[in-house]
Amino acid sequence: MQDRRSRLQVIALLAAIACACPGRAETISIAGVTRSFTVALPTLRPAPLVIVLHGGAQSGTDMMTRTAWPQVARDGQFGVVFPDGLGRAWADLRPAARRTLSAPPKGTDDVAFIAQLIDKFVRDGSADPRRIYVTGVSNGGAMAMTMVCARADLFAAAASVIFNLGDEAAQACHASRAVPMLLMNGTADPIVPYEGGQGSSRFAAGGFWSTEQTLAFWRQTNGCEPANAETTDLDDRDPSDQSTVTRIISHCPAGHDVVLYRINGGGHRMPGRIPDARFPRLVTYMLGPRNRDIDAAEVIWDFFKRFP
User: Strands, E, within 138-286: which ranges?
Assistant: First the structure.
C-alpha cells in the first residue's frame, strides 16, 4: 500500500509539471494497438525530423508545451514529433524492478512504434531519412538509448537527458553502428544519481550506473578514446539557478561524437528557460534545481544538425 501511495504521489508531482494544452494530435496503429502522437512539420520538405520522448508519467503534449522544442523546430526548419507512451511510460531496456514508476502494458513494442512513425514521415515525403534524430528525458532518455541499441540504422544522432544505463540495459544493447550521442545529467539528481546506485529520493529505483560509466559505455560503442578530449566550463548566465554547466567532449573518430553536458548542482530536470512546472518550488523540492544557463533543446539541436 505504501509503495502504491508513493507512486501516486510521484504521478501527481509530474502532473504538476505538465500542461495539458491543445496540439495537432494524430494516431497510428501498431499491431492492432492505436498509438498517439503530436507533430509539427515545416513547410519545406523533406526536412530533418526529431523524435522527442517524454519522461515517465508525462505525455508528448507535456514535452511540447513545457520545453523549447516547438520554437527551436520553427527556427531550425525541422519537423518534431512528440509520441505518447502507453501508460505514460516507455518500454525501454530496463527490467520492471529498475523503474521508478509503472511500466507500460506487457508486450508493448515501443521500438516498433517509433520505427513506424519514422517510416510514415519518410514515406509521405515529410522527413529526410538521412536526418532523423531521437532524444528524450528521464524514461524518454532511456528509450532514446534503447532506440540506438535496437535501430541505430535509423538515426543520424541521439541525445539522452537525465538518465544513466544499468547492467541489464547495457548488456541488452547491441547497436549495429556508431551513432553520435549527447548526454546531459545533473550532479544533484535525486532520481537518477550522477554517481550511480540509488538516488536520494524515496521514489528512486536502484541499479543505475554512474554518468561516468554511462559515458564510457558510449565512448567504447562509438570507438572513442577513454579519456576526455576537452572540458569547458560554460558561462554562468543565471547565477540564481544554483547550478552551472560543464561540457565534456570525447576524442572520437569523425562522425562518432560523444559529448556530456554535466549540470553541476542540477536536479532531475531538463535545463531550459521556459517554465517547466506550475508549482516550481514544489518541483524544486522534489526533483532538485533546474539549470537556466542553457536550453537543452537548443543545445541538442545544435549537436544534431552537425550530423546528416
Answer: 157-161, 181-186, 228-233, 244-250, 258-264
Could you tell me the CATH number of the domain that includes residue 299?
Answer: 3.40.50.1820
Look-up of cell digits 539541436: 301
Strand order in the sheet with 157-161: 25-30, 33-40, 79-83, 47-53, 127-137, 157-161, 181-186, 258-264, 244-250, 228-233
Residues 170-223 pLDDT 10s: 999 999 999 999 999 999 999 999 999 999 998 899 999 999 999 999 999 999
If one counts the domains in the chain, the total is: 1
pTM: 0.91
Domain region containing 26: 2-304
pLDDT digits (tens, 9 = 90+) for 252-266: 999 999 999 999 999
Q: Is the pLDDT of residue 74 over 60?
A: yes
Whether the Cβ atoms of residue 201 and residue 280 lie closer than 8 Å to each other: no
